[in-house]
Amino acid sequence: MLRTSTPILAPIREKVEAGERLSFDDGLLLYDPQVPLPELGELANLVRERKNGNAAYYNINTHLNPTNVCVYRCTFCAFRADLRDKKSYWMNDEQVLARGQEAVNNGCTEMHIVGGLHHQAKYEWYRKVISLLHEAYPELHLKAWTPVEIDWFERLTKQPLRWVMEDMIDAGLGSMPGGGAEIFHPEVRSQICEHKADSGRWFETHRTAHELGLRTNCTMLYGHVEKPFHRIDHLIRLRELQDETNGFQTFIPLAFHPDNTGLSHIKKPTGPEDLRTMAVSRLMLDNIPHIKAYWIMLGIGTAQIALSYGADDIDGTVRHELIYHDAGAETPEMMTVADLRRLIEEAGREPIERDTLYRRVERSEAGWEAGAAIGSN
Ligand code: SF4
């Protein structure tokens, strides 16, 4: 039995206890300041423990951003560069392969690959990033490209979406990350990223990925110009696709970091705002198995508390994170397994290493292998 007692929350509490779906208006109410954060967290924790018990998942992973040169200029982005900027780079084959070797040497099970849309790079170069790594390190799961990049590849190849997806799968693509979602509502999208792939393209890409058997993640970038209305709209759109395809594994609420962006006048979300969004996400997305507290963005302390506000995953050890550090993230650029496990245990949860597809990772002297599927996946 929950200890919650605020009267305006009572109808929602009844629905959550009965396992019923929350409506758009319920979601808006959860953002009402009259709803106390601890009570909201308690409700989200009920769902979190129902789906994933006391487990808190992590993985051993690395990031690869093969270039930061980008034709777009999303106002929230501090990572992109023009070709002639001092900080611009474009990796060659040796640099890409060296990252793969480093990942394998450090026991990584996953490489997360996203980057800029370089106007001089041909589609074949993007494909080669995947095929080189897959051929050299087949045990490394490649979680790569957002719908923004896939949309760009369609333009480069003049081929339809399904062709591009199948070609990338043929090269070694294992799953897709959740980026490029930002906020789906056009009122917001037109202010922060009007040129890149719109919400229709984002959903079409993930639907196609799911139809082709790929699992994908999904995200929401919050804390900039959007209102609670836009966030709930965003979450419900994700929930609707999941009803159709059941292809999303994890939702990751991404806290906006303003430094070095075109929105640097905006203050980044506070800890309570982060926790409220985490809890609302868990409550609204009743059909997505996992909610991630991405420690790089939230900060370690908030990520720990988030494990009792709906989150059951903390992301990974991470190496070479650039995108949020360029935007002012003050977290370390990586963490050891021992540190990750300790922070999970300090939060009162049981650390479990997973691979990208949420299978328990078994490690031995000979290396690692994926065991059975875990959690509510
Ligand atoms: S968010 Fe992505 S598409 Fe937008 S400017 Fe940054 S790198 Fe380019």
From TrEMBL:
Pathway: Quinol/quinone metabolism; menaquinone biosynthesis. [4Fe-4S] cluster binds at residues 70, 74, 77. Its cofactor is [4Fe-4S] cluster. GO terms for molecular function: 4 iron, 4 sulfur cluster binding; 7,8-didemethyl-8-hydroxy-5-deazariboflavin synthase activity; aminodeoxyfutalosine synthase activity; iron ion binding. CDD domains: Radical_SAM. Binds 1 [4Fe-4S] cluster. The cluster is coordinated with 3 cysteines and an exchangeable S-adenosyl-L-methionine. GO terms for biological process: menaquinone biosynthetic process. S-adenosyl-L-methionine binds at residues 76, 182. HAMAP family: MqnE (MF_00993). Belongs to the radical SAM superfamily. MqnE family. This is Aminodeoxyfutalosine synthase. It comes from Adhaeretor mobilis. The gene is mqnE_2.
